Amino acid sequence: MNILSYGLLGLLTREESSGYDLMLKIQPHWQAKHSQIYPLLSKMENDELLASRWVQQSDKPDKKMYAVTEKGIEKLLEWMITPVTAPVTRDEFNLRILCVGIAEDGSMRRILNERKSWFMERIRYFEELKSRIPLDNLRVGNRDFGSYILVQKGLMHAQTGLEWCHWVTQLLDGQAAIQDPSPSVSES
Predict the structure, then answer these.
(1) What is the per-residue DSSP string for 79-121?
(2) By three-state DSSP, how is residue 176 classified?
(3) Sign of the four-CA dihedral 137, 83, 6, 47
(4) Which of 13, 40, 150, 183 shows the smallest number of beta carbons within 10 Å?
């Protein structure tokens, strides 16, 4: 079992879904393609972590719907008590920023503007996801609570990234001094 497998099991604890629906639901949290998801679903079904059924559709091909089994829930609960690994950062943008000392100002501004656009798109994306979550009954234990706090995390990350891009642009324009832009963080 890999981390993506556990994520798919987790999504299936919420509701029965097709492989395509699972791919869409996991995207805000984990980048995965059809070619990764379908073999995992098949393996988990063979391992009796999932059950499936076919749904006939008149205007489209039939689709296979997956649901988590008791064995799948047990496997997921075992995973939930294991230590969480450190987050992985793998962003080409960061590597390019390391090279800005040799780049022309125009190159730096271009990649900053591209990233600003990306962050603005992510903000719209997470705001749209957030608008679909019913907020009137959110609490720990509610099936939408995890979605809400993760969407909020994504939104806050995108907003902070956009703010960082604006700060760097101000540095380039000479409108900000080189200093630590954020207050120090202490553990509570």
Answers:
(1) HHTSPPPPP----HHHHHHHTGGGS-HHHHHHHHHHHHHHHHH
(2) coil
(3) negative
(4) 183
Does pTM top 0.85 for this prediction?
no
Write the DSSP assignment of 37-67 as a string of letters.
Answer: HHHHHHHHHHTTSEEEEEE--SSS--EEEEE
Q: Please give the backbone phi and psi of residue 65, each rounded to the nearest 5 degrees, phi first.
A: -105, 135
> In this structure, what token pair is assigned to residue 158?
């995108």
Count CB atoms within 10 A of the CB of residue 161: 18
pLDDT in tens, 165-188: 999 999 888 876 777 656 666 665
Q: How far apart are the first and last CA of the chain?
A: 35
Give residue-wise pLDDT tens across range 91-133.
899 988 888 878 777 888 999 999 999 999 999 999 999 998 8
How far apart are the C-alpha atoms of 9 and 72, rounded to whole Å?
7
DSSP string across 128-165 = HHHHTS--TT--TTSTTHHHHHHHHHHHHHHHHHHHHH
CA 23 to chain centre: 11
CA distance 18 to 22: 6
